[in-house]
């Protein structure tokens, strides 16, 4: 198989990007897992695929596979990267795109300064639609993790997120509790576990243990979910700078049924061929 690929990252959340508009390939979970290995493969958090779409109003299809080979619904940092990829590869001369995903659509815009803004759509807060096991919808829920009851928020940004507020995100045992939250029985499709430190009403620090990938340097949907959770708790203002280990994202959410907006960089690292 001869297959060209591009390695990209959004704030250190790194991707292998495939153009399946001009190329053809049938992929297996085993291939994705092998390519994701950092010692013996290409190494990435997620594999992103750009492909044709027949959905009305959409420009391209956009599919996402985690390092474990499983397909997932959404990746905000990935959406920025595929936008940059499409323009750089000459797949389109536009600067605004709508993508068909496994669950819904997503709209992006390449800004004049090179950053990419993503319309992340309104958050999903109804427990059964996240999905999350709860009797009623609330801003926070009790969740027993490792024998202790934690206060969490449950949010879907097209994929499920569990958000905890912690005093110090750097000293918090993310790598120990992250897997326990990811596989908690209250989240029947597993969950991305976010740990948020409030710096002030316009600034947070965030670490995310991603479903199927482990902790990543940045998680775009996780940043959005954290700001939504903070807004629901009355802790944050409409516009928030999210500090991740990979860099900063700018998130805005007016509340209620408004979409979440996310702006950040998308960078090409290298090109390759399999």
Explain this structure to me?
With about 270 residues, this protein is α+β, with helices and mostly antiparallel strands. The chain folds into two domains: about 5-120 and about 265-274, Diaminopimelate Epimerase, Chain A, domain 1 (Roll); about 125-260, Diaminopimelate Epimerase, Chain A, domain 1. About 15% of the residues lie in helices and about 40% in strands. The chain is built from four helices and 18 strands. The chain has helices at about 30-35, 75-90, 175-180, 220-230, and strands at about 5-10, 15-20, 45-50, 60-65, 70, 95-100, 105-110, 115-120, 140-145, 150-155, 160-165, 190-200, 205-210, 215, 240-245, 245-255, 260-265, 265-274. The protein has an 18-stranded mixed β-sheet that branches. A hairpin with an 8-residue loop joins β3 (about 45-50) and β4 (about 60-65). The mean pLDDT is about 95.
Quaternary structure classification = single chain
What Rg, in angstroms, do the CA atoms define? 18 Å
| Helix-strand sequence | EEHEEEHEEEEEEHEEEHEEEE
Please give the largest β-sheet: 18 strands, mixed
Instruction: Tell me the count of domains.
Output: 2
Distance between the termini: 7 Å
The amount of beta strand, in percent, is: 35-45%
What is the highest CATH level, the class of the largest domain?
A: Alpha Beta
Pairing-aware structural class of the strands and helices? alpha+beta
Helicity, as a percent range = 10-25%
Beta strand count: 18
Q: Uncertain regions: pLDDT < 50 for 5+ in a row?
A: none
CATH fold name of the largest domain: Diaminopimelate Epimerase, Chain A, domain 1
Q: Please count the helical segments.
A: 4
Could you say which overall geometry the principal axes of the C-alpha atoms support? globular
Label the CATH architecture of the largest domain: Roll
The CATH H-level superfamily of the largest domain is Diaminopimelate Epimerase, Chain A, domain 1
Overall pLDDT confidence? 96
């Amino acid at each position: 198989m001869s297959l060209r690929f591009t390695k990209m990252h959004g704030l250190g959340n790194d991707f292998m990007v495939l153009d399946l508009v001009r190329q053809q390939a049938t992929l297996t979970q085993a291939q994705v897992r092998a390519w994701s290995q950092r010692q013996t493969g290409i190494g990435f958090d997620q594999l992103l695929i750009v492909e044709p779409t027949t959905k009305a109003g959409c420009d391209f299809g956009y599919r996402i596979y985690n390092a474990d080979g499983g397909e997932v619904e959404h990746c905000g940092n990935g959406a920025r990267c595929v936008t940059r990829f499409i323009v750089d590869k000459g797949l389109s001369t536009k600067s605004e795109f709508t993508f068909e995903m496994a669950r819904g659509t997503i709209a992006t815009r390449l800004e004049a300064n090179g950053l990419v803004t993503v319309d992340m759509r309104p958050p999903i807060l109804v427990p059964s639609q996240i999905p999350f096991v709860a009797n009623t919808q609330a801003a926070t829920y009790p969740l027993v993790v490792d024998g202790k009851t934690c206060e969490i928020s449950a949010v879907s940004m097209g994929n499920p997120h569990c958000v905890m507020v912690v005093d110090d995100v750097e000293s918090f045992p993310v790598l120990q509790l992250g897997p326990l939250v990811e596989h908690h029985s209250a989240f029947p499709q597993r969950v991305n576990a976010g740990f948020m430190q409030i710096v002030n009403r316009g600034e947070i620090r965030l670490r995310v243990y991603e479903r199927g990938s482990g902790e990543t340097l940045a998680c775009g949907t996780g940043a959005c979910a954290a700001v939504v959770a903070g807004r629901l708790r009355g802790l944050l203002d409409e516009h928030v700078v999210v500090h991740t280990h990979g860099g900063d994202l700018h998130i805005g959410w007016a509340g209620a049924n408004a979409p979440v907006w996310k702006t950040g960089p998308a960078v090409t690292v290298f090109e390759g061929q399999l």
